[in-house]
Amino acid sequence: MLKLNNLTKSYGRIKAVNNINLEVRPGEIFGFLGPNGAGKTTTIKMIVGLLKPDEGMITLAGIDIWQEPLKAKSMISYVPDNPAVYDKLKGIEFLNFIADMYGISKEERLRKIDYFSKLFNIEHALENLISSYSHGMKQKLVLTSALINDPKLFILDEPMVGLDPKSSFNLKEIMRQMCDEGKIVFFSTHVMEVAERLCDRIAIINKGQIVTVGTMEELRSSAKDEETLEKIFLELTEDE
Amino acid sequence: MNKLLALVKVDFKNTYGFNSLIQSLKNRRNIWIALVIVLAILSLIPSYFMLVMGLVNLADAFFQIGQGSYFLQMGIFGSQALVFALGIFYVLSKYYFASDLNQLVPLPIKPSYIIGSKFITLMFSEYLTSFPVLLPFIIIYGLKASKGVAYWVYSLIVILTMPIIPLVLASLLVMVFMKYTNLGDKKDLIRIISSIFFIVFIIWLQLTIQQLAMKSIELGDALFLNLAKDSLYLVKRLGIVFPPSMWATLALANTNVSGLLYLVLFLGISFVSIGLMIYLAERIFFDGLIGNIEVVAKERKARDLTRSVAVMKPYLAIAKKELLMLVKTPVYLLNSIGGVIIVPIILVMPILMGDESMDTITSLISDYPHFVNLITIGIIVVLAMVNSIGPTTFSREGKNLWIQRVLPIRARDQVLGRVLSSLAVQLLGILVLISAIYIINRIKAADILIITSLGLVGSIPMTQLGMVVDIARPMLDWDNPQRAMKQNFNVLVALGLGALFMMGLFFLVKNLIYKIDLIYIYLILFTIFITLAIILQGILEKMVERQFMELE
Fold first, then answer.
1. CA-based nearest distance A177→chain B, Å
2. Which of A10, A79, B120, B287 is deepest in the core (most CB within 10 A)?
3. Are B239 and B262 spatial neighbours (Cβ–Cβ below 8 Å)?
4. How close B399 gets to chain A, by Cα (Å)?
5. Is residue B412 part of a domain?
6. Residue B545: closest C-alpha in chain A
């Protein structure tokens, strides 16, 4: 279980995330929606240990992420929206480095690297410098690196941006499969159709606060008419 | 002209990051860190003061033999040489490897505008290094010779325009060099190897010219006669090596009509040289540049994965990653690894070239072998400071630091891995240094062992000291690796702290050397190094843990 309790983060006077509470259960694909600047990335960065919350607590499987960071991080894999990676390393060197940090055995990493690099169609590029990769290839390399470590929490910021249709399809399949294995998949997106079709539950954040959270059905039933997610989203996030 | 001004403005903001500096100073915690940095810089002042006092004595000596202006020329020539040497590195990375080139090249701007704007920013970077060198010479000379207003006005002009000629020379050399080494996918390697040869060649050339200049000074009675006859005798002799240094000196030494003429000559040649650079930029700049920015993916056969996958302990994997990044990024390679190779070569070359003034050193080496051990250990520990690996280790991560922060890496492994990478580079420096000493005078295996082990152990706290400075305020927001290495304030702060540490060691050894047996001095040094290493390791672990959480 991933729990966010009274999470708050401010930049100067602006509250980027304002006292949010969320619970994500194992086996759930959780979609995190919101307009630009709503606080999605800030929240995600606090979960993965890149931004320290001003107040509140985040726990994963009962472990406080900010009290026991090493324990928590070994259960988390994170894919940022625009991943910067070591340009001067070869793809395979980068994957090896990540696997070393998670302490993954040779057999296991061989199996994972082989499987995911073929799935994302980057196996031919692993011996090349990352600086020669296109944006999409870098994204796929980071995805592969994030999947080497069989994570309990797979957290992605705008994962579909920059991916070709086939890789995007494969990623969705992987997310579904992880969820079937009882893991948590938490991702932010702007693409309503993806969220609508893929997510078990959805939260919409606006101006740092969660404005709604629930399954697609729950969101629909609380809306005025039987609406699409897009309409619900626009309704909830429009400026008063 | 408007375009040029706009380019200069953007480049200034980009290079010196005033906006982000002001932004970060709004945060209270950063103000505190800024204060610590100011204090650390202040710690450089005692060493600087000692150097300046030494210069005052030197000036006295030259004034006594009636050659005071030679003292002035040494300062001008020294800062010109410094500007030129640093200029080569600056120009290389700013003209050819800066990431803003990706945006600039497709725009409808002439190559000369790009070069021109970058040249102006570089001038300011060079001021930062040339002022501390040149100013003491100008001020000491001006005061000792009781110069009038004209001298100070001329000085101001010379100080401001001094970097032009050496920087133009560096630009021309680099532009020609890049045009003719733009050779396919091995160009990085070709360039790095040729730059090392190039630097050694420049030093050789410099030494040869210097020897020629020395030989042209007649010895014996003729020398004294000449010294007495012409108060500018030495100035004119050194002028053979690099005439602009002589013009600037003559402009300042006599602020009458002839001085004015020399000033006009100095300025004239400076501006003509800029014109030449602009002319050449239009013709060859893009030839060396295009093909630099993009990296060509080679059609490689996917290797058998079992051969490319290897398991490593986290700290070793971090050390390996650090070394790979150092070797594969030209700016890092030249500054860190190049530094530890070139510095020992520079130290030994004059001796190998049979410079007579070095005879004393050669005889010293054979007469007092233990001095050699101690001095060599000292040089190695200084190299750990010069290689800049410690004070840039976190800064070099730049935008990639998120990777390290989200991974479950123990602080101990972070610190250990990074120290190991510095030690690996140090080992290379030690190898070069010992080989060089071996060529001059065969040293014993036992001495090699002592030098290597104490040098390596001493390099640990020196690297850690740099790391402490870097983790306190890593410079992560850069788009050109040059900024993480050469324009990183942390390097300067670490140099200051390292210099204090070395001074402490020097005085300790100086006091002990005739009182106790050499073996005890080694033991004392070893104990100091190890104790400091353990203390700093503890401090670093705490700081890394905290900063990896706190950084935003």
1. 23
2. A79
3. no
4. 6
5. yes
6. A69
